[in-house]
């Protein structure tokens, strides 16, 4: 079945800015992305796999995307990719020479959408010679692929039931978690920004290294007015993920909106020496 790949998060974004007006100017860099996602509309063929086909792969601990052909042509992602490259350049989030090498390699066909798809332990698989840092590659992948991947897996989401996936990467695309929610029954649901997938994962286990020693897992508390938000950290690998208790913040927005809209939490984590696979754009941008 073919669906359209547009993604409209603008109303949720406006609601978040209403709760955090002091951050409106800082967060303005994301508005162009959200507008383009909402206005872009391209046909995407859904995976169309049965529950048995999906669960057979998950039983082997293989994300669905890992055994699919590359789902997009370069032409289908170029408009969004161009937007992302321009934003990286405008905020100084990547070296100009590296962005130029990437653009030249893309134009001659040396790099395509496959280079932006998740690989084991990271987003994207660019050659080191390109010179783009991990966060920049993850940003390019999210901006250019999110609407399409969201539509691609839209018919498979219901096949993911409890107990069939226990890894810290997305069962649909293989991307790392970008955010976490505590849902109504108290369980933790990780969120993938690359495809919009979500999956339940133990609260007392690091999604990045699998460490489940309670003494290694700590929670950093943001400001008092940010009730319901914590930063879950791991002392073993020094990874972190922002977490929102939706039993407390029932009116919060989607995971991507909450992540992009809380750069002050990332600052707290990074000041204490923690890392994440894909930091928000404004966190790794260089001051003018």
In words, what does this structure look like?
The chain has 288 residues and is an alpha+beta fold. The chain has 2 domains: 151 residues, no CATH class; 120 residues, FdhE-like domain (FdhE-like fold). It is 34% helix and 13% strand. The protein contains 10 helices and 10 strands. It has a 6-stranded mixed β-sheet. The chain has a two-stranded antiparallel sheet with strand order 1-2. A hairpin with a 2-residue loop joins strand 3 and strand 4. It is globular and about 50 Å long. The model has no long low-confidence stretch (mean pLDDT 91).
Describe the SSE topology.
Elements: E1 2-4, H1 10-19, H2 24-27, H3 31-39, E2 43-45, H4 51-59, H5 74-90, H6 96-107, E3 118-119, E4 122-123, H7 134-152, E5 179-182, E6 188-191, E7 198-201, E8 217-220, E9 229-234, E10 240-245, H8 255-260, H9 263-271, H10 281-284
Parallel strand pairs: 5-10
Antiparallel strand pairs: 1-2, 3-4, 5-6, 6-7, 8-9, 9-10
Helix pairs in contact: 5-6, 5-7
> Mind describing the biggest β-sheet?
6 strands, mixed
- Report the C-alpha radius of gyration, rounded: 18 Å
Count of distinct structural domains:
2
What helical percentage do the residues reach? Answer: 25-40%
The amount of beta strand, in percent, is 5-15%
Shape: globular
Distance between the termini: 47 Å
Structure classification: alpha+beta
Query: Which spans have pLDDT < 50 for at least 5 consecutive residues?
Result: none
Number of helical segments with 4 or more residues: 10
Within the largest sheet, what's the order of strands? 7-6-5-10-9-8
Secondary-structure element series: EHHHEHHHEEHEEEEEEHHH
How many beta-strand elements? Answer: 10
Could you tell me the mean pLDDT? 91
